[in-house]
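Complex 613.
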Amino acid sequence: MCGIVGYVGHRPAYPYLIEGLKKLEYRGYDSAGIALHFGNALKVVKKAGKVAALEELTAVIEQGSPIGIGHTRWATHGIPSDNNAHPHTSQSGKLVLVHNGIIENYAALKEELLKKGYTFHSDTDSEVLLNFIEDIQQNNNCALEEAIRIALKRVSGAYVILLLSEEYPQTIFAARKGSPLVIGIGQGEHFLGSDASPMLGYTKEVVYINDYELAIIKPDELILKNLGNERLTPFVQQLDMELASIEKGGYEHFMLKEIYDQPAAIYDSLRGRLDAQQGQITLSGVDSIKDKLMAARRIIIVACGTSWHAGLLGEYLIEELCRVNVEVEYASEFRYRNPVIDEHDVIIALSQSGETADTLVALENAKTQGATIFGIVNVVGSSIARLSDAGAYTHAGPEIGVASTKAFTAQLTVLQLFALKLAQMKGTLDKTVAQELMQELALVPEKVQHILDTQLENIKKIASTYKDARDFLYLGRGYNFPIALEGALKLKEVSYIHAEGYPAAEMKHGPIALVDEHLPVVFVATKDRVHEKIISNMQEIKSRRGKLIAVVSEDDQTASSLSDDCIFIPQAHEIVAPLLSVIPLQLLSYYIGVERGSDVDKPRNLAKSVTVE
Ligand code: M6R
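Predicted structure with 5-amino-5-deoxy-1-O-phosphono-D-mannitol bound:
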């Protein structure tokens, strides 16, 4: 969590810092701050609240400095407040630091520093780290670079830090472990960011910093070292991202834009990979670990949140089409519960950001035990992408709204391709059925567009009817069960209404006690092999006077006549139908959130990239 920016070069740093922080606000938005170096003095401005509040405050300050750092925070240690906001200033006032991550042994370090007479102005682990660095520098009478190295060898946890020192008016010191850092290379200038979005429009050349690396960044020079003080050669890559892709493009919110991006995003995930005419799938990542996949006794899918819901659907798909055992794991549980893993396991990692700390560490552990990692990741060059032995990017484009939408459908698309490809390799799927499924998949982008074109007003009306409900229940069976979970999560995130997703038949084992005339129950009830069963579940809710909102296939008279409100989607094979049935649920959450006045792009307490455990 937390977004970090930095600039050193020949132009005023401030515009890059403030605009960069706005682009990184999805990573956290409870306080923000900047520090500028004015040759002999460091100026820090910080404030609780969003970047807009900081911008008001900084409008009147001297902004001419060509070097500075900035931070937008997602609180871990200490409430969102001016004091806990970054940058932090060291005891002597000569160093300032921004930090993303968690210093796990901060309490012990703080104890040491308190005994030495240090005082603290915040509750953060970050201020402890800063003073720890300063203390080392003073005691050892060494260069700052050396002090940082010594300090980082003693801390445990995750960090990206950027440091400015009064002593070095032209240098930013940066280091990383477990949290992301990108350095953009310009002509006589360098741009820093937690991701590359702030530097779009400035440069296309970037270096992704690796764990345990320290960068010393001046206008004309980027020195990269490991913590053993050995020089490393920065690996410069070309940035493959356009400015337009991170702008709202006329939509009121990123979330709405990203819902509308889905026909194109799904198409992009399929492009060059699916040849429905020839019945062929091209996924070079799958080819590259073919032997491992063919020999795998099981596949384990590891993810968090929405990506975990995609993973659950992946389990249904892969088991059905490829006849191989699949397990789906919450990364946060998997990493700590000492699972049995060996070199016969293939792990599929699902992550939009590619930086989710729980997923990343779970994968590192599994890799150490010999498992092969296949990453399905959206952010190119992210930590999970780089850790994976093979993979397939989702190609959804940047997702800025904190509530995941297009990344989810792109993940489902890649999982479909993966399952079909593996089934072909294993010979577990009839050729004609495989081709039929491929043709169905090829039609998804236009069917999604059809839903967006025909159901919008209907969904807005439904949102307005139910916006004041206290709770919602989402029910689905089979392939639509993960969609029910995802629908409930989306509603919680952007409207703050309590919502639960459940397997429709399991509902009678408990949640049915909640049903009365005040409870909206959303059924994901498209035509599939369990359709008659879900109709019975709808009857059970109706006879208890629950309000029925149903997502149904266009020609489904039975389900629609049972429902109080209905959203129609095109008929599709049950395996690809989830790619369609989730769309109305995203829109419903969005419009309920908007009606209730939530900040749908940046819901309270959340962050887009969860880089703490
Ligand atoms: O970047 P990841 O896909 O690894 O993120 C996982 C979850 O944090 C994420 O899906 C979260 O649940 C979203 N806010 C869902 O909308």
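The chain has three domains: 3-245, 251-442, 446-600.
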